[in-house]
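Bumping my old thread because nobody answered last time. Still need a sequence for this structure:
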């Protein structure tokens, strides 16, 4: 009785993307040309997607590396946040400095004086921006501090009103032909106040205490560091600050610092961050990132389009098999899924191989660069120009995820039209000419 019941029990049809559909799709890809397969075209499509994905990851990682390196140097030289307004002249501004230092995440707080000046040395005259800083704040300028000699660090700020030793950028020093120990004359547009009023333009000769390198040639050409007290005296700003610069532990997450810093600075304070100060540069980086992502994404899309030609030929060669499958009960949707899986499998394999190749290249780019330089006997990346030992590459998980998803999406999109055409083949018409 049970045998009869089981014999009459209907067989449950296989679901979508069942084992037989996937197995048949992979079998078609492995078939030789004489068997109606498209193995060679599948290999070419696989290599195209693999190389496109690897190149896209490599280029975006190198761009991210240069962008992070440049931004890091610029933020090291400048502040992450700026406080201006009434707090600069408030009687309790020293207490405000302490409150700002106590804000969670704030690494350093530095009152500064900034002013433009003319300078003359070595028979040449040029302009520069003078930054007056406290000697203890010099260490917060990582690249500048590391590039200075021990003597320059120790003598900066020593003497009456901070002394007369100043620090100049390397590019500026080379342009003037001067170095540590040489005299340099500065002209202030406003002098100190006296009983007869403001003395007007003030001229004073200083000694070059050290030559710094900020890692950015524009800053090395345009800036001079002077002890804060000396800068206040020289520019007639005694007891006055121009700005309070803050540096935080995570400068890429500025929104979380704005409210606490405003509260600590007190009423009347104006708080901005580096995104406002460097709005043009930040906007250019954002546009460059978006534009390059779109342009390079098209390379992956073009490589994925090779799948179309492979699946079209596969459908043409397997027309008889499609007709037979339809006559034995395979549904049009099953035929669509078989050829869709065949195309998608090429995309998945190419994407995974491209991810592995691209990540391996980015994570070992320094070793690869040095190997090629030793092999070819040429310098591929001039460290004196870029101030880096090797090409920087920063692998961003978000970029890698975007590349993988985009490649898989394009592979699926490319596989769909020929698969749809295969599902619409009429088995009667297909077998009529066999």
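Sorry it took so long. Here it is:
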């Amino acid at each position: 009785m049970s045998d009869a019941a089981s014999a009459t029990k209907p067989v449950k049809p296989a679901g979508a993307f069942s084992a037989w559909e996937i197995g048949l799709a992979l079998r078609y890809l492995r078939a030789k040309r004489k068997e109606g397969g498209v193995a060679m075209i599948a290999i070419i499509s696989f290599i195209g997607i693999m190389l496109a994905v690897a190149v896209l990851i490599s280029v975006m990682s190198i761009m991210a590396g240069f962008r992070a390196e440049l931004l890091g140097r610029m933020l090291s030289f400048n502040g992450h946040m700026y406080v201006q307004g009434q707090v600069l002249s408030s009687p309790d501004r020293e207490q405000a400095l302490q409150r700002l230092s106590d804000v969670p995440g704030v690494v350093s707080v530095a009152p500064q004086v900034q002013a433009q000046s003319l300078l003359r040395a070595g028979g040449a005259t040029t302009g520069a921006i003078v930054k007056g800083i406290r000697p203890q704040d010099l260490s917060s300028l990582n690249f500048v501090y590391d590039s200075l000699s021990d003597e320059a660090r120790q003598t900066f700020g020593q003497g009456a009103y901070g002394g007369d030793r100043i620090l100049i950028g390397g590019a500026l020093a080379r342009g003037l032909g001067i170095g540590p120990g040489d005299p340099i004359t500065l002209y202030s547009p406003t002098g100190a106040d006296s009983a007869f009023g403001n003395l007007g333009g003030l001229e004073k000769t200083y000694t070059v205490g050290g030559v710094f390198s900020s890692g950015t040639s524009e800053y090395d050409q345009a800036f001079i560091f002077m002890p804060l007290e000396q800068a206040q005296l020289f520019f007639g700003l005694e007891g006055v600050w121009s700005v309070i610069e803050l540096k935080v532990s995570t400068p890429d997450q500025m929104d979380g610092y704005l409210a606490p810093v405003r509260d600590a600075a007190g009423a009347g304070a104006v708080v901005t961050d580096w995104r406002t100060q460097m709005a043009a540069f930040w906007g250019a980086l954002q546009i460059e990132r978006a534009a390059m992502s779109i342009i390079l994404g098209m390379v992956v899309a073009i490589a994925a389009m090779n799948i179309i030609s492979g699946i079209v030929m596969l459908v043409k060669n397997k027309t008889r098999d499609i007709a037979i499958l339809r006559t034995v009960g395979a549904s049009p949707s099953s035929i669509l899924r078989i050829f869709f899986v065949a195309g998608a499998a090429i995309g998945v394999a190419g994407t995974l191989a491209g991810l592995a190749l691209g990540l391996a290249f980015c994570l070992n780019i320094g070793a690869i660069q040095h190997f090629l330089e030793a092999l070819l006997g040429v310098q591929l990346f001039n460290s004196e120009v870029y101030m880096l030992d090797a090409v920087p590459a920063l692998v961003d998980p978000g970029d890698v995820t975007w590349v993988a998803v985009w490649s898989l999406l394009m592979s699926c999109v490319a596989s769909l039209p020929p698969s749809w055409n295969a599902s619409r083949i009429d088995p009667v018409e297909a077998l009529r000419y066999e």
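The first strand starts at residue 81 and ends at 85. Let me know if any region looks off to you.
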